[in-house]
Amino acid sequence: MLPETTQELVGIDEIRAAADRIRGHAVRTPLLDSPWPELLLKPENLQPIGAFKIRGALNAIAHLDPDVRARGVLAHSSGNHAQAVAWAARFYGVTAHIVIPDNAPRRKIEATEALGATVELVPVEQRFSRPEELAQQTGMPMIPPFDHRDVIAGQGTIGLEIDEDAPADLTTVLVPVSGGGLISGIAAAIAALRPDVQVIGVEPELAGDAAESKRTGRRIGWTPADTARTVADGLRTFSVGELPWQHISSQVADIITVTEDEILDATGRLVLDARLVAEPSGAVTTAAFLHHRDRLPAGTTVAVVSGGNIDPTVLRSVLGAS
Amino acid sequence: MLPETTQELVGIDEIRAAADRIRGHAVRTPLLDSPWPELLLKPENLQPIGAFKIRGALNAIAHLDPDVRARGVLAHSSGNHAQAVAWAARFYGVTAHIVIPDNAPRRKIEATEALGATVELVPVEQRFSRPEELAQQTGMPMIPPFDHRDVIAGQGTIGLEIDEDAPADLTTVLVPVSGGGLISGIAAAIAALRPDVQVIGVEPELAGDAAESKRTGRRIGWTPADTARTVADGLRTFSVGELPWQHISSQVADIITVTEDEILDATGRLVLDARLVAEPSGAVTTAAFLHHRDRLPAGTTVAVVSGGNIDPTVLRSVLGAS
Q: Which EC number applies (chains A, B) (predicted)?
């Protein structure tokens, strides 16, 4: 059991303020019909850098005091968050210093550098301590991947847009869960705007720490060795954050787990039947709809397709062509 | 040389009226950053049925007199237009009768039937005469694929949206050309709203009738046997329509042709680098940008990605995996 704190939940006013800050910079994604009756898709794979994380990074950096922002920003990540912070920092004309574990895929490191960030590779065991050290030395503000109210509020703008676009018979919003920033923001928006709609998280069975936490009512961590088993490489975080846990405890109805086969099946069907390139982490929600419909309320469901940065080898494989 | 008439060009007011009719029904597609500097993508592959044609079909059916519309609508097509008319007719609660040549791919026939349309298969030489006969017998209005001002005005709503979303340094809009309805509508909108921006058509070299027409100043037809050679199966129409030709003559700056290799290369790069599933016909504009940049003005270009209904075998092949 991990430590728990009591912080104020992120509120709808903070999410509306985030929407004002990122308007015209993040893509206002449409809500798409899908080939599957009663399922609508929210394609965050269409964002710059291919993932929703641009929203939280833009909002967090925009909300910094200008004098602080001018120092540049710090982040640690080996995935989409690194690219989101690099992209948003470049957008605001400040430097980004990204600490990445030296076992991260070469492709992800290069993508982050290509966005103009300074990348510092560190041994995996220093991936949290080194950024702290840098923050103290340089005064650069850290942009955390999920456990931060401005990041959560930024991701919550997806919830505002779902409310604007979804029909009256919407009953369910499916959201991938890793550190919990995305689902926290969306749940906060939906709780305020559509209190009868259930926000349901989706996780790989092989990285099911949030589902176990929700079931037991306590924030539980899995080991990195456990969560590393899933193909959904964006969902390997081994526990949800402290503030996300408060949202998940109070505003999320359920967390469903999906198998690796279900994830890969949904990834392929999204390409072939819905014309969307989703990474496995972004396809878990469609997998839940296609394979666990019995766990969902009747009526219209929105599945958040959180990102599209799929490894080409995995893509070929799900198309039955490897 | 084909007959030419003089009709009034479709104007911005008709396009604005079309936008009012289809708002909330067709997807308001965003303008996306691409991995290629100075190229923005307009992803019409995200529309229901996977192609821009939903816009023209919705507008044409919405604009019918309600008593006439109640009879149901007629169309002939073996491609995306058939599905667009079927989808739009179902949306308005009227029947669609679609005449399809009996050599059309099974997949396309089934997709049209799945949308609730009545499909009539006819020998390929009756594909124009049979719908005429039906129109006379039944009084059902025909929704033509491109040579109709309501269809052109519907496609022109893409031009309105490009104007709303594109930066001030936009210089070029690239549009696939087949029968010419899409480029006519977009050119009409851009001529009114951004008169300094060049609208440039793109065609497969193997179906280059519009490029030849533009070069010679006369509307020229190629044979179906000629145009059937290209992989871009949505661009095999063997001449542009009469009204489209008037728009192309006066409002389109140039028509560029691309090779089959360039089309397939662009199709693969759109999936792997831009996370967009485009059919080859929808990828020709990206092919023109990537391979014929020297023919384009300096500054920002928008490429219209017109559709995403790609054959799975072609998709696997462009991903280097067949």
A: 4.3.1.19
Tell me which residue in A32, A276, A321 faces B27 most closely, judged by beta carbons.
A32
Query: In Å, how far is B150's CA from the nearest CA of chain A?
Result: 24
Do B312 and A29 lie within an 8 Å CB cutoff?
no
The answer on B129 and B93 residing in a single domain is yes
Q: Compute φ and ψ for A63, nearest 5 degrees.
A: -85, -5
Q: How far is B85 from chain A (nearest CA, A)?
A: 17
The rounded distance, in Å, linking the Cα atoms of A104 and A236 is 13
- Say whether B156 sits in a helix, a strand or coil: helix
CA A8 vs CA A78, A210, A244, B163, B249: distances in Å: 29, 20, 11, 42, 63
The single-letter code of the amino acid at B2 is L
User: Which of B101-110, B130-139, B173-182 has the highest mean predicted lDDT (pLDDT)?
Assistant: B173-182
The residue of chain B nearest to residue A167, with distances taken between CA atoms, is: B24
Residue A1 is predicted with a pLDDT of 60
Tell me the pLDDT band of B322, cut-offs 50, 70 and 90.
very low
Separation between Cα atoms, residue B261 and residue B120, nearest integer Å: 35
Residue B74: inside a domain: yes
pLDDT for residue A70: 96
What CATH number does the domain containing A193 carry? 3.40.50.1100
pLDDT, one tens digit per residue, over A257-309 is 999 999 999 999 999 999 999 999 999 999 999 999 999 999 999 999 999 99
pLDDT digits (tens, 9 = 90+) for B272-308: 999 999 999 999 999 999 999 999 999 999 999 999 9
User: Which of residues B107, B138, B169 is at a domain's end?
Assistant: B138
Alpha helices, H only, B92-180:
106-114, 129-138, 149-165
Contacts of A165 (CB under 8 A, 6+ apart): A30, A31
Same domain for B133 and B168, yes or no, is no
The CA distance from B87 to B58, in Å, is 9
Name the residue of chain A whose CA is nearest to B165's CA: A24
Residue B311 neighbours by CB distance under 10 Å: 14
Q: Is B104 a residue whose pLDDT tops 70? A: yes
Please give the residue range of the domain that contains residue A128: 65-138
Separation of alpha carbons B145 and B56, rounded Å: 8
User: A282 to each of A80, A182, B112, B173, how far by Cα in Å?
Assistant: 12, 12, 29, 31
pLDDT of residue A128: 85
CA dist., res. B321 & res. B279, Å (int) = 17
Question: Do residues A308 and A282 touch, judged by C-beta distance below 8 A?
Answer: yes
